[in-house]
Amino acid sequence: MCGIVGCILKNNENVAPILFKCISNLEYRGYDSIGLATYDNKINVKKAKGKIKEVNDELNFENMAGKYGIAHTRWASAGRPTDENAHPHLDDTGRIAVVHNGTLENYTELKNKLIEEGRSFESSTDTEVIPHLIRKYVDEGLDLEHALRKTIEDLKGSYAIVAISQDEVGKIVATRKDSPLSLGFGKNGYYVASDSPAILEYARDVIRPKEGEIAILTEDGIVIHDEDDNGVKRKPTKITWTADMARKEGYEYFMLKEINEQPLAVKNTLGQKNNVKKIIEEIGEVKRICFVACGTSYHASITGKYLIESLAGIPCDVVIASEFKYTAKTWNEETLMVFISQSGETADSLTALRYAKETSHTLAIVNVAGSAMWEEADYVIQTQAGPEIGVAATKTYLAQLTAIYLLAGTISKNDEIIDQLNEVPKYIEEAVAKSDEIKALSKRYNFVHNAFYLGRGFSYPIALEGALKLKEITYVHAEGYAAGELKHGPLALINEDMPVIVVIPPGDDYNKTLVNLEEVKARGASVLAVGSEGNEDLKSKSKEMISINPKVPDILAPLVYTVPLQLLAYYVTVDKGFNPDQPKNLAKVITV
Ligand code: M6R
After folding, report:
1. Lining residues, ligand 1, CB within 6 Å
2. Interacting residues of 463 by C-beta distance below 8 A, sequence separation 6+
3. Which domains does the chain have, with CATH numbers?
4. E-assigned strands of 428-543?
5. CA-CA distance, 199 to 214, in Å (whole number)?
6. Whose C-alpha lies nearest to ligand 1, atom 16?
7. pLDDT tens across 167-197, in order?
8. Which neighbouring-strand residues pair with 526?
9. 588 flagged as catalytic
10. pTM
């Protein structure tokens, strides 16, 4: 969840401005504190609690001297966000500096032992045991690389570690387990980063080291050693994303830019049609499907279940990845296990994928090439949303849905739905064009403390996603419910202070949802309906209404009706003065 960058330049320029730029690109991975360490005759460290810009105004990272160094942006796990807990962490001689992403399960035990051995700690992080252990093994006579190797033998948990030592000048060492790390080959030098988008401006040829391998970066190149100390040769992957794609380009926030990019994300993902066909041909007969995912990707999975069951008649399960372990292992070689993740790194989903691989075909729908799930699944559909920087998933969600529609259409041999998908980017554009209208409407939602989102059938996951968007960036408590379920309990909460957003496209379920709308209205709720343009009856029954092109087929509603809910959450957030790109307590990539 934290962001990591390391760089060693081939020339003698100072690396700090580059490190700072790269780590700023990773602010979406964590924004509790930031720190840099560079080597200039000795290791120099600057670090503090706070957002990158604020801390830089205070500490001026860019004027640090030295041609190589490491940087970190933190999402606090062990230890509160404080100056002391900010990375890099040092051993107690100050000669070894370490940045780390991940969580160490046995750090208390290791820390107690190191304290007994006379080492002193400055932070309450799990990370600090790492420089102390490296120091211990260096003191026993090992070089930095082997001291790091010995250190990771002691660690239980997940980690990406990058370290430098004052006693081995001109070298950065790095390793990983269950946490992402990419090595980058640039024109001006060599890079290591938790996410390749961080270094796109400088390096687009990347290698992801495998678990247990140690990478050694010097000004002459990158060498990788496996667990037996043998040299490893691996061809770099070219990242097709460009640095420009990860810039705001005049938008106030990435989230708004990314909402606007949705027509393109869907259009580009439709280009995966032949790949999907090829995958299904290779797999052969699919008797059962199980989707596994978290958060927004889980909502995409629910749409997947409804689609596949209705179009292909194949039984389909949906499991929250963190609950996967607790489900009975009823899948087998005839089950297609589909893992959905924008990042491709989510720890719970990755763990489930590894487990499922033992018995079944695994297919990952991921946005990031070279990510763990992209590498480890048997088959991959890469969504073509481009880099998504805002923590709230928007364009990656619609791209995931597009991939799911292609999958369902292909499995069920339903060409009609695949053809209909070509019209969707236009409908999304029309929905995005409602921006000003929704902005005006959002003012009425600034002071609410709770909200309900209701939907039925294909609109149920839309309601879930609308509620998630609102709660994660506005901090307003919101619940997404299957419209028919409300009367089984939550109806007790409905009163004049409870806005209810009802997703109600035309189609078979319209009348039933309308009954639910009337039920909440009768209890005083003010209703915002998201329905079909020209439906005057619906308009008269709702306090507010956002209208969507009536030509959008009911079955494709998730791809279009989601958009106004994203915009509503966005504008409420901005009105409240919060940053929608960096909601508190959250991060873009959940590797723990
Ligand atoms: O990278 P993933 O799609 O696997 O992430 C799963 C969730 O953490 C993610 O979808 C999260 O719910 C979104 N950021 C919410 O907007």
Report:
1. 294-297, 341-343, 346, 349, 391-393, 468, 472, 590
2. 453, 454, 455, 480, 481, 482, 483, 501, 503
3. 3-243 (3.60.20.10), 248-433 (3.40.50.10490), 435-581 (3.40.50.10490)
4. 450-455, 477-482, 499-504, 526-532
5. 20
6. 392
7. 999 999 999 998 889 999 999 999 999 988 8
8. 499
9. yes
10. 0.87
